[in-house]
Amino acid sequence: MTFGTLRYIGQRLVLIVFTALAVSSVVFLGIHRLPGDAFVSERLRPSQEAALLHQYGLDRPLPVQYADFITKLVLRGDLGESVANRGTKITPLVLREATVSAEIGFVALLFTVGLGMMFGVFSAIRQNTWVDYGLSATSVVGYSMPNFVLASFLILIFGVWLEHITDGGFFYELGWSGTFGSPAEILVPAFALGFPYASIVARLTRASMLEVVRQDYIRTARAKGLVEQIVIVRHALRNALIPVITILGPLVVGIITGSVVIENLFGIPGLGKEFVQSILNRDYNIVIGVFTGYAALVGIANLAVDLVYPLIDPRIRYG
Amino acid sequence: MATSPAVAPGAVPAEPLVRAQVGLWSDAWRRLRRNRLALVAAIYLTCLVGVGLVSIFWTPYSISHTGVGPTYQGPTSAHPLGLDNLGRDILSRLMVGVQISLIVGVGTQIVVLAVGVPLGLAAGYFRGWVDTVVSFVINVFYGIPDLLVALILITVISLGKPSLDKIIIAIAATRWMDMARLTRGQTLSLREREFIEASRSSGARPLKILFGHLFPNALGPIIVQATFGIPQAILFEAFLSFLGLGVPPPTPSWGAMAADGVHSLRIAPHIVLAPSLALIFTLMAFNFVGDGLRDALDPRQRR
C-alpha cells in the first residue's frame, strides 16, 4: 500500500466524519421541530415530565442543546442516552447493531455479486438459448420484487411449508439471541436482501460479457488453444467486471437500506430494527444515533468498494 | 415493411421515389407495438387504471368495514381473495390500493420532472457556476441513502403525521437526481449541435432555447427515465408502508396490507400473497413498458 493510497483513505475518512456530523445535525434540528417532547407518549404528570426534561437537559434553549450534543459527539463520540430505555448509552448500542447489520449486509453482497455474475456469465455464453431466456426472466422478476415480498415468500416456503425439513430453524418469530446468528438465520435473510440486486448485476454482467467476448484478445486467447473456462474466467470475466464494479457503490447503499425491512421481518437485532423501533417509539436520541450510524456505515462501505476497484482494474490508482 | 405489396419472385421491387415521412413518434409507436411483452404490460396497466377508477366509486365491500366475515378467512366465493386480520375484504382493499400506488408513482414522477428537468437543462446549457452548484447538490443527495433522506423529510415536513402528498414529496426528493443528471447529460451534448447554434445566433432567448429546442429533443430519454421512475416510487412507498412509516393505517397501501399479514403467514398466507403478487405484477409491467419505450425511442441503445 503506497503513501498515496494511505493519504486517500485518510481524506475519505475525514469526509465520512464530516458527513456523519452533518447528517446528525440535520436530524437533530429536524427532530426538535416536531410537536410534543420525547416523553409525551408516557402520559406523565406535568411535574414528572418537567423533571425528566430537566434531567435530560431538554428544557434548555435549542442552540445550547445543539452545542452540547455536537461537543460531546465530536470530543467523546458520545451520542447520549436513550430516553425510552433510560440509562442505555447510545454509542455502544449503535456500534453493536452496526456490526450485526454489516454482517448480514456483507453476506448479502456476496449473494448479489456471486449469483449476479454467475447468472450474467451463463446468460452471455449461452446467448439466445433457453438458459439465457430463463435467466433473463428470473432477473426481471428479481428486480420487480420488493425484498419484503421475497422475504415473506422465503419464510412461507422454508418456515411454513417445509417446516418438517427445516425444523422451523429460522422462522422469523424466533429472532436472534445474540450478536451472531446461526448460519440459517444469516443465510436466508441475506439471500432475501441480496437477490433483487443480483438481478441488476446479472443484466450488467451479461451485457458487458457479450461485448467483451467479441473482442480480438479473446479470439487470440482461444486461438492459442486455451481451455474455454480459462478464456471466460481469466480473460473475459475480468474485463467484463469493470462496468459491474462501478455500480457496487449504489448496490451497497441499496443493500444497507434494504436491511431495514429485512431485519424487522426476520427479527435481526441490527441497526435497521432499531431504526424503525426508535422512530415509532419517538426515542429521538436513538433516532439521531442510528441516522449517524447509517451515514458512517454507508461512507465506510463506499470507501471499501472504492478500494476494491484497483484490484480489478489496475488502471485505477489513488494518490 | 408491412405495407409493401407482395413482389413476384425475381422481380425487381419498384422503389417509390417519395416515401411517406415517418416521424420520430410514429416510428417509435410502430416499434413499441411490435414488442409483445411491452404491449401486454401496457394492457395490464390500462386495466389497472380502470380498476383504480372503478374503486373510487365502487368496491365489493367497504374497505374500512371490519368483520364482514371471520378474520383470517381464506378465499371464498363471497370474498375471492379472502379476509384480512381484521376481517376486511382483501379484494376491495387491493382495488383501493391501486389508487395509492398509481398516485404515488405518477405523482412522484411529476414532482421529479418539475424539479429535475429545469435544473438539468440549466446546468447543461449555462454550465459554469450553475452547473457546479447543481452537480454538487446532486452528488450530496446521492451520497446520503435514500431511506434517510425520505424519512428525515417525512418526519420534518409532516410533523409526525404523514399523508400521501408529503410522502410523494419525500420520495421525489430521493429520485429527482436521476432525472436532473440525465437531462444535464442530454443538454450538454445537444447544446453543441447546429440547430441550437442557429437558434442562438438568430437571437432566441435562453428560456426559448431551453424549453423550445433542448427540452423537446431530450424528451425521449426523459420519458423512458420517468417510466422507470414510476415503479421505483411505488416500491419505495410499499417499503415505507410495510415498515409502518408510510400513509397511516386505515389506508389500504399494498405495502401496509402485506405487513398486516406477516405475523399470520402460518395460518393465513393469502393476506400477504394478494398484495405481494399485485405489487410484483405491477412493477414488472412498468419495467416491461419502460424497456419497450427505451427500445422504441432509442433503437441504438438496444442491448
What are the main properties of this structure?
A: mainly alpha; 13 helices; 75% helix; B: 303 residues; mainly alpha; MetI-like fold; 0% strand; disordered N terminus
Brief rundown of the structure:
The complex is a heterodimer of chains A (319) and B (303). Chain A is 75% helix and 0% strand. Chain A is mainly alpha-helical and 319 residues long.
Question: Which band does the percent of strand residues of chain B land in?
Answer: under 5%
Strand percentage of chain A, roughly? under 5%
Summarize the helix and strand pattern of chain B as letters: HHHHHHHHHH
Order of helices and strands of chain A: HHHHHHHHHHHHH
Number of strands of chain B: 0
Terminal Cα span of chain A = 11 Å
Q: What's the CATH H-level superfamily name of chain B?
A: MetI-like
Name the shape of chain B in a single word.
globular
Number of helices of chain B: 10
Chain-averaged pLDDT of chain B? 81
Q: Regions of chain B with pLDDT < 50 over 5+ consecutive residues?
A: 1-8
Can you describe this structure?
The complex is a heterodimer of chains A (319) and B (303). Chain A is 75% helix and 0% strand. Chain A has 13 helices and no strands. In chain A, helix 1 (3-31) packs antiparallel against helix 13, helix 5 (130-143) packs across helix 8 (183-212) and helix 8 runs antiparallel to helix 11 (248-266). Chain A is elongated. The termini of chain A are close together. Chain B is mainly alpha-helical and 303 residues long. Chain B has a single domain, classed as MetI-like (MetI-like fold, Orthogonal Bundle), CATH 1.10.3720.10. The longest helix of chain B is centred in the middle third of the chain and has 37 residues, at 90-126. Chain B is globular. Chains A and B meet through helix 1, helix 5, helix 6, helix 11 and helix 12 of A and helix 5, helix 8, helix 9 and helix 10 of B.
